[in-house]
Design brief:
- By secondary structure, the protein is α/β, with parallel strands linked by helices.
- The chain folds into four domains: about 130 residues, Response regulator (Rossmann fold); about 300 residues, no CATH class; about 90 residues, DnaJ domain (Helix Hairpins, Orthogonal Bundle); about 110 residues, Tetratricopeptide repeat domain (Serine Threonine Protein Phosphatase 5, Tetratricopeptide repeat, Alpha Horseshoe), CATH 1.25.40.10.
- Helices cover about 50% and strands about 10% of the residues.
- It is built from 33 helices and 15 strands.
- Helix 19 runs antiparallel to helix 25.
- The longest helix is centred in the C-terminal third of the chain and has 22 residues.
- The chain starts with a strand and ends with a helix.
Length: about 725
């Protein structure tokens, strides 16, 4: 019999997503949206696990779990997991511990992490229930955002319509769930697909003829018609894809091609903001091939801002706001959303300042269209949130209100009676895999990285200038890794005061300021364009910073720390795994430094130590294989070992460009120009501003044998020739 779990949360979509994601594994999820409904599910469905929101309407989640524990049957011992949109108080943590809750997880929680935690708590088949770890296991309270690497949630379709859930809300949902998969859209003959990686839109594909690269380049005057027609003729002769052909024809330079590809991809995605109808389906775990790569520099929140400002119909914005005219807009209480990376004008920052005190939606409706767009975009991103207006005006703590209300009961019944919408068909297109878009600031706006009324201006290390020097992104990535690694070394200290760089006699205001500065510095959205390793380091640092603040923000817990000077020593635990990962990262960074000065043997020694400490990090393996090849020469045994290491690295880090760049160079050295070309294309797909791969593609196109007898007689480069080229470019 399938195990049943209770999902008690006012967010109906979260319950639906969890039900479908776990349903593929045979787990039955029964939703409940208030305390009474949750207890009724416990009575009738006999769940083996409860996932409960602390902020349930009516009686809160703690009251629900207390009622479950008070039962006189086996259900009283079921494992329980709390979710919370805000940092729990010391009293809530202590009560959750007494009720034997396994953990309190902060929203948004990645779907893979939540699914993995749930599976750990489910009883073994045919065995007794899994014993919850309990909050008492973590010193100083629950680890609200524990770093876990559970088995990934397998593909499960999530479907709906854009009439109910518009595209900006979908982007926000995917971001909060850290979704990995493909979101498909269909509206009559129009079909589009977006691949998400860790909640970020990474690539887009379309079946619309007017959005093909050639037509787009001509329409935007990036090429003239004769050049376009010549590129088409060369494509038909099999000389490559359109971007590669235009590059070989020297119609576009590497920099111009990168800019064209990124703008083309962003246009394809922004067009979906204009859709007022259509169906969507998110398939978790799916991948998208031959798609246009989107800019890694654009954060999910900023993508929503741009799409709403440029394309989203103002009539739809006003319609949504009118539905909430009795409510009040306030600044977000969720730290993850509060510190998102987004470009705001002075007027936008002013709206955030107003929201600190509360802005009636009715007042927003009287403002100019630009500000109404801003308000809607900030609500969709979660930087602002809606609260019950009557309660706010009375000065009480008001419940959060969803921006997009659930369909009416009549609509739900009609939907239930109607046959289920068929799954969307995958889009089939034949177009060049293209590259990311670059974030362009809104017109007439003074860009400012701000998420609070008094913004901290943070330089975007990951965003290169238009005329960036070659390999600037590698230097930026290296700088980010070094900075985050150093920050994590500080955050490994047991004292929350030390983590935030504070003295024990610090005031609450100073604690908040220190937390705000560090949270902005380490927020994952600042590193959406960086490598997966950098993003993981940022996630870990943000968790540690938020957890330290949660320990000190509560006056009771703060006083406990001040009265017990031995508390930090008692709470200090061995963090061997984390220290091992940090040590591996430091070795890798040292190896990169050696590689840049052509000390291949020194680089190899550092990369080998990094692989010993952390053997499953693909980037470490790829760099190790490349340094091994550069160090030991080009005989067959060395080549095989180097190629195997780099190939394994590419498999473990499929979203990084460097492993594919190294595979291309190794293939060149072996005389496999066809394979080298494929690898360089993959490198560009992963990192469209990888000028090294673009240059290699242009040179390969120029060196391709001509058709006919003379071309077939041309000698291909030998392994030795390739070795010399590889050394010069290493």
């Amino acid at each position: 019999m399938s195990p049943t779990i209770l999902c008690a949360d006012a967010d109906r979509r979260l319950c639906q997503i969890l039900a479908r994601a776990l349903g593929i594994d045979g787990v039955r999820v029964v939703p409940a949206h208030d305390a009474d409904a949750a207890l009724e599910v416990v009575e009738q469905a006999a769940p083996v696990l409860a996932v409960v929101d602390l902020g349930l309407p009516g009686r809160d989640g703690l009251a629900v779990l207390a009622a479950i524990r008070a039962r006189k049957d086996a259900r009283s011992e079921m494992p329980a997991l709390f979710l919370s949109a805000t940092a729990p108080s010391a009293g809530q943590v202590e009560q959750a511990r007494r009720l034997r809750a396994s953990a309190i997880l902060m929203k948004p929680v990645a779907l893979e992490n939540l699914g993995g935690r749930i599976r750990k708590l489910l009883p073994a088949p045919g065995g007794p229930g899994a014993a919850p770890g309990g909050l008492g296991a973590a010193p100083g309270g629950p680890d609200a955002t524990e770093a876990m690497r559970p088995r990934a949630v397998r593909a499960a379709p999530l479907r709906g319509t854009l009439q109910v859930l518009p595209f900006p809300a979908l982007l926000h949902e995917a971001h909060g769930l850290r979704a990995r998969g493909v979101l498909r859209f269909e509206d009559g003959p129009r079909r589009k697909e977006i691949e998400f990686i860790d909640g970020r839109a990474a690539s887009v594909r379309s079946n619309m003829p007017g959005e093909r690269l050639g037509e787009w380049l001509l329409r935007n005057r990036r090429v003239d018609r004769p050049a376009l027609l010549e590129s088409i003729r060369r494509m038909q002769r099999g000389e490559g894809k359109q971007g590669e052909v235009l590059l070989a024809m020297q119609v576009l330079s590497e920099a111009a091609l990168v800019a064209a590809l990124r703008d083309h991809a962003e246009d394809k995605l922004l067009e979906i903001f204009t859709w007022s109808r259509g169906r969507f389906e998110l398939k978790l775990g799916a991948r998208l091939e031959h798609a246009s790569s989107l800019s890694p520099h654009r954060s999910p929140a900023d993508l929503i801002r741009v799409g709403v400002a440029r394309r989203f119909p103002i009539e739809r914005i006003d319609s949504v706001l009118r539905q909430h005219r009795e409510h009040v807009i306030l600044a977000s209480s969720n730290p993850f959303y509060s510190f998102q990376e987004i470009e705001l004008s002075d007027a936008d920052v002013g709206l955030l300042a107003e929201a600190e005190r509360g802005v009636p939606v009715q007042a927003i409706l009287t403002r100019e269209p630009t500000l109404r767009r801003t308000a809607y975009a900030l609500l969709e991103t979660g930087l602002l949130e809606l609260r019950e207006g009557a309660v706010v005006r009375q000065g009480g703590p008001a419940a959060r209100v969803r921006l997009h209300a659930e369909p009416s009961l009549a609509k739900q019944r009609a939907s239930a009676a109607a046959p289920e919408a068929p799954a969307l068909k995958p889009t089939t297109v034949a177009e060049t895999p293209v590259a990311p878009t670059s974030a362009a600031p809104a017109q007439n706006a003074a860009p400012r990285h701000a998420t609070r009324p008094t913004p901290v201006v943070i330089p975007k290390l990951h965003e290169a200038p238009e005329a960036a020097p070659e390999n600037a992104h590698y230097a930026a990535d290296h700088e980010q890794r070094a900075a985050l690694t150093a920050l994590l070394v500080d955050l490994r200290r047991p004292s929350p005061f030390d983590k935030l760089g504070l003295r024990p006699d610090t005031t609450p205001t100073e604690i908040r300021c220190a937390y705000t500065a560090l949270a902005k510095r380490a927020h994952p959205d600042r590193f959406v364009a960086a490598s997966e390793v950098v993003r993981n380091l940022a996630e870990e640092a943000f968790r540690e910073i938020t957890r330290a603040y949660q320990l000190l923000a509560d006056p009771v817990r703060l006083e406990q720390y001040r009265q017990d000077p031995e508390r930090d020593a008692k709470n200090a635990e061995a963090v061997e795994e984390a220290q091992r990962a940090l040590g591996a990262e430091q070795e890798f960074q040292a190896g990169e430094s050696r590689l840049r000065v052509y000390d291949w043997a020194g680089a190899l020694a550092h990369f080998e130590r990094a692989c010993e400490l952390y053997p499953d990090e693909g980037e470490y393996l790829a760099f190790c294989g490349w340094a091994y090849y550069l160090t030991h020469g080009h005989d067959e045994a060395v080549f095989r070992k180097a190629f195997a290491l780099v190939k394994r690295g590419a498999k473990l880090a499929p979203d990084r460009d460097k492993p594919y760049l190294f595979l291309g160079r190794l293939s060149q050295a072996a005389g496999r120009l066809d394979l080298a070309e494929k690898m360089f294309v993959k490198a560009v797909e992963r990192r469209p501003d990888c000028t090294e791969a673009l240059r290699e593609l242009r040179l390969l196109a120029m060196r391709k044998p001509k058709q006919g007898l003379v071309g077939r007689l041309l000698r291909l480069p030998s392994v030795g020739d390739g070795k010399k080229r590889a050394r010069r470019s290493g």
